Amino acid sequence: MATNRASLRIKPRRQQAEEALVKIISSMEPGEQLPPEPSLARQLGISRATLREVMRTFVERGMLVRRHGVGTFVSSRIPALDTGLEVLESIDTIARRMGLKTEVAHLEIVERQATPIEARGLERPEGCEVLVVTRVISVEGEPVADLRDVVPTLYLKARDLGEDFRGSVLDVLLNKPSLLLVTSKTQISVARATRKFAQRLQVPEGSPLLKMTGQLYGYDDKVVAFSTSYFVPGHFQFHVMRKVSRR
Q: How far is 171 from 92, CA to CA, in rounded Å?
C-alpha cells in the first residue's frame, strides 16, 4: 500500500505558530492583553524573533494592536467598514449605515494661509486663506483613520462647523445649499506610519497605512476641498465596479 506523502508532511514552524496564536487570540476578549513575549514564545515553542514576525503579520491584518511601552492587545472585532470607491461617503455615514458609533479625537480647526502643497492641491495661488480641519476618527472606540481637509474660507469657515461637528467636512459641505459638489479625484497609495501617526492611530511605527489624497470638485470645475487621509488596514473594505474592455 502506497504511503500518502502529503499526509506525512510536517508544517513549517512559523505556520504552526500562526495557527496556535490564532487559537489563543480566538479564546480571548477584545482589548485583552497577550502574555509577555518571552512566556508566549516558550508556550508556542518558537524563538522570540519568529514570534515577533508572526505578531507583526497579525498587527498588519488588524487582529492585534501594539501599544508602545505597554504591550500587545487583541483588536476589537468591529466589522470592516464596507464601501464602494465609485461613491464618496464619509466614515460617519458608512458607520451609521452599519449601526456603528463614531467618535472624533485630536480635533484641530484653524484658519490660516495655505502652504505651497495645499495651494497646489486646491489649484489656487499660494497664501490663499483656508480652513484646515485635522482629526482622528474612531469607530466603536478604536482609531481607524487620520484625516486632514483643507477648504478655502470662500467655501467654509470655522464657525460653519458648529458645536455638533461629527468629524466629516464632506457632510458639512454637502449640507451647504450654495455648493454643488460633483466629482472627487483621488490618488491611492500605501504609506508607513510615522511616529506621529503611529501614536495617533495606536499602531506600531512603520506599519502600513492606506493613504488617499483627494480633490473635491464643484459644478464649476473648481476644487472645493483638498484632503489627505490615512486609513488603518483591516478596518476598511473598499470595492469598485470595473468595466470590461472589449478590444
A: 9
Element containing residue 42 per DSSP (H, E): helix 37-44
Residues 13, 18, 21, 26, Cα dihedral to 10°: -150
Contacts of 192-201 with CB under 8 Å at 24 or more apart are: 193/230, 197/146, 197/230, 198/68, 199/68, 200/105, 200/106, 200/136, 200/143, 200/146, 201/136, 201/143, 201/144, 201/145, 201/146, 201/230, 201/232
pLDDT, one tens digit per residue, over 87-128 is 888 888 888 888 888 999 999 999 999 999 999 999 999 889
Residue 162 φ/ψ region, left for φ over 0, alpha for ψ in the -120 to 50 degree band, beta for the rest: left
Q: Which domain holds residue 32?
A: 12-74
- Residue 141: all three cell numbers together: 472606540
User: What's the alpha-carbon Rg for the chain, to the nearest Å?
Assistant: 22
The total number of structural domains in the chain stands at: 2
pLDDT per position as a tens digit, 143-201: 999 999 999 999 999 999 988 888 899 999 998 888 889 999 999 999 999 999 999 99
Cα distance between residue 76 and residue 142, in whole Å: 7
Global pTM? 0.70
Cell of 164: 455638533
Determine the Cα angle at 35 with ends 203 and 55, to 5°: 45
Question: Which helix or strand (DSSP H or E) is residue 20 part of?
Answer: helix 13-26
The answer on 18 and 59 residing in a single domain is yes
* Same domain (yes/no): 64, 87: no
pLDDT in tens, 123-141: 999 889 999 999 999 988 8
**How far is Cα 5 from Cα 166, in angstroms, rounded to an integer?**
59
